[in-house]
Amino acid sequence: MAFSFLTHLECTACARTFEADQLLGLCPHCGKVLYARYDLGAVKRSLTRETPRGRRPDMWRYHEVLPVRDPANVLSLGEGVTPMFEAPRLARRYGLRSLLLKDEGQNPTGTFKARGLCAATSRAKELGVRAVSMPTAGNAGAALAAYAARGGLEAYIVMPDDTPAINKAECVVYGAHTYGIAGLINDAGRVLRELAPDRGWFDLSTLKEPYRVEGKKTMGYEIAEALDWTLPDVIIYPAGGGTGLVGIWKAVSEMAELGWIDSRRPRMIAVQAAGCAPIVRAYHEGKTHAEPVQDAHTIAPGLRVPVAIGDYLMLEAVRASGGTALAVTDEEILAAMRDLAATEGVFTAPEAAATVAALPKLREGGAITSSDQVLLLLTGAGMKYFDQVSVDLPQVDLTRPGASIT
């Protein structure tokens, strides 16, 4: 049996198809996002939805619908199959039947970026790439650096100067050629677009090649498998570049074609930061594409994406699913980080905390109801953002007899 049932690439805009084993980034005809496609009929004949349960405990348990043909090219660090569990105290607070947390902070390098970069770097190596590049707000660069090191590839990374120090350190420690820039992630991307072609660097930017989304889509497969091949009523996702959002929606379509799930679909809700909310604005204005945000600002680096090439795919997923899009403030994000940790024992990243901050607004606005099962996608570990949480400890005076703590 084939390790992968990959058949071809298909443009998500003009629908042209391309041979899967040629090295492509965006569609050569219209410049839009390419998706990997599979012989799902053959997959359906070869295995059942129960087959993955007995396999390795990482995302490659679904290898038939992942793009790497030869298992020797899989550059795994144990990514995927992250825990998903109930948040009963928050559920009671907001009057929800069930509130689930999927903790992607337990991936290698501490975020869900590991999934996408594992798939993309593995496939790039399989196709003969020796050097890769990427602009990053931090966590994607760290994941790329780790998997490039795993595969013996050269990595060239450019990030804004105000990227969290831990992300800069990760990239350097993993051996990536790492550079700063006085600008935003789109400025970093512009620099690499000018340099990469002449230097032979393959661009692994968000949705600018077909395979990062394949790694991210495994979240959708895992959610369904963990819920005995059903899906929650609502999935709330913090949307920057949006690879995970569209990846989950792609997985839903594939699982339906495989007959692994029924006709019910989760409502996909995109949450952004108030200082950088192009998808929210486009959604409420009824547009297919989002206008770039000027002077984008937020304390959540992964949400500071002024313009996303996959904007139309995010908007399509939100609308087709009957979902919505909304923004939360930085103050609400910081409060939600503390609230989730103190209430449910999960210290999550600011991007992920945005989903928690959205709950009261969604509940008050009627976008989620008491009968819904709601899932929050917690995209990263809060310990990578210790500088966002100021702590001033009260002192105990041990020189005084009878010193006590109140």
Provide structural commentary.
The protein has 406 residues and is an alpha/beta fold. It has a domain at 84-109 and 210-385: Rossmann fold (3-Layer(aba) Sandwich). Helix content is 35%, strand content 16%. It has helices spanning 40-46, 88-93, 113-126, 139-151, 165-173, 185-199, 212-226, 243-258, 278-284, 311-320, 330-344, 350-365; strands spanning 6-11, 17-19, 34-38, 84-86, 98-103, 131-135, 154-160, 177-181, 202-203, 234-238, 267-273, 324-328, 373-378. The chain has a 6-stranded mixed sheet, with helices on both faces. A 4-stranded parallel sheet has the order 8-7-6-9, with helices on both faces. Strand 1 (6-11) and strand 2 form a beta hairpin. Helix 11 (330-344) crosses helix 12 (350-365). It is globular and about 75 Å long. The mean pLDDT is 95.
* Percentage of residues in strands: 15-25%
CATH class of the domain at 84-109 and 210-385: Alpha Beta
Helix content: 25-40%
Q: Major sheet: size, sense and barrel closure?
A: 6 strands, mixed
- The number of strands is 13
Gyration radius, in Å: 21 Å
Rounded average pLDDT: 95
Structural class: alpha/beta
